[in-house]
Each structure stands twice: as C-alpha cells, then as structure tokens.
Specification:
By secondary structure, this protein is mainly α. It has a domain of about 30 residues. It is about 75% helix and about 0% strand. It is built from 9 helices and no strands. Helix 7 packs antiparallel against helix 8. The longest helix has about 30 residues. It starts with a helix and ends with a helix.
Length: about 190
C-alpha cells in the first residue's frame, strides 16, 4: 500500500514537473527572441492606450522605421522635437554622448523594438510596480525616522536613502527586464 502511495505521489510530481518544464521551455523561447511577439497583449497596462498608438507600437516593434534612416535625418527629427522643450534641447546639446547614443539606439534593429516589448510582460510589470511602491514606502519611512544627529548628518542620510532607493529600483528593473534591455545594454 505504501509503495502504491509513493508511486502515485511520484507520478503526480512527474506530471507537474513535465508541465513546469514545458512552461519553462516556452518562456525561454519567448525570452530568447523578444521580437517574436507581434501583438500587444491586452492587460491592465495596455487598456489605456488608444488603438492608434497600439498600431504605431506594433509597427515600430515589427520593423523599426528609424533603422533605415540616416543619422542626419534622425538628428533633424530629434532636434525638431527637442526645440519644443528648452530643457531637453539644452541637455542634448550639452551631452553629445547621450545624443549620439540616442541616435545609435534609434537606428539599431533590435534595441528599441526589444525595449518596447516590455509592455507585453504584464506580470513582470506588476511585480516591478510592487517593488517600486515598496521601495518608496520604505524610503519614506526611513526618511521619517531620520531625525537624529546634526543637520549635515541628516542631509547625508537623506541623500544616501535616495541614492539607495534609486539603485534598488534600477537594479530590479535590469534584473526583471534584462532580456528586453540586453540589446540596449550591448550598445553601451
């Protein structure tokens, strides 16, 4: 009787293991080629996007229209958009490395479309949103507790808390969405 029970338990575990292996294989295939998706999934994040914007995103994901443009054409497009915002315009003119990276990113066939595919990872976006909210709450509580010591020590602690929260958020973003930002990371 015990042997039969052990056999049934192991059989159930084996079938669950096969199911998990199939899900794992599908996930790995999906992550291996983030551009394999050609549709934007309906989720809590995409319900607020108009059909026109969704079609535009699909067009950019399937075939990056910026990849066939010359650097001069892209510079003209970026400059015309930046002229409407004085802060962006001055930032790009004062940081030519960022400006050149933006042009390389837009012209790359995989970097921008892969980054845009983050919108299809709704479960991961939910997890990341929870992490961001938790980090903000913890940072707020730590700043409230930060009342001991002199003025400079409190200012230093507030800066340290802010940098720590920012670092945790960026690290979590990179960890969760690494496959989508890998082509962008490779451009750096």
């Amino acid at each position: 009787m015990k042997i039969l029970l052990l056999f049934l338990i192991s059989l159930a575990g084996f079938s669950q293991q096969e199911n998990l292996e199939q899900k794992y294989d599908k996930t790995i295939k999906d992550l291996a080629d983030p551009l394999a998706f050609t549709q934007i999934k309906n989720s809590i994040f995409t319900d607020y996007i108009s059909k026109e914007v969704k079609q535009n995103l699909i067009k950019h994901i399937k075939n990056n229209p910026f990849s066939s443009m010359s650097e001069g054409q892209l510079r003209a497009i970026i400059d015309s958009g930046a002229n409407h915002n004085k802060i962006v315009s001055s930032f790009l003119s004062n940081n030519p490395k960022v400006y050149n990276f933006l042009i390389k990113w837009l012209r790359d066939k995989k970097a921008m479309p892969s980054f845009l595919m983050i919108i299809n990872r709704d479960e991961d976006l939910k997890v990341y949103g929870i992490i961001v909210i938790a980090v903000l709450v913890i940072g707020f509580i730590l700043n409230l507790i930060n009342s001991k010591g002199g003025l400079f020590k409190r200012i230093f602690n507030k800066i340290l808390i802010g940098v720590g929260c920012f670092s945790i958020n960026v690290t979590c973003f990179v960890y969760i969405f690494y496959e989508n930002i890998k082509p962008t990371w490779n451009l750096l």
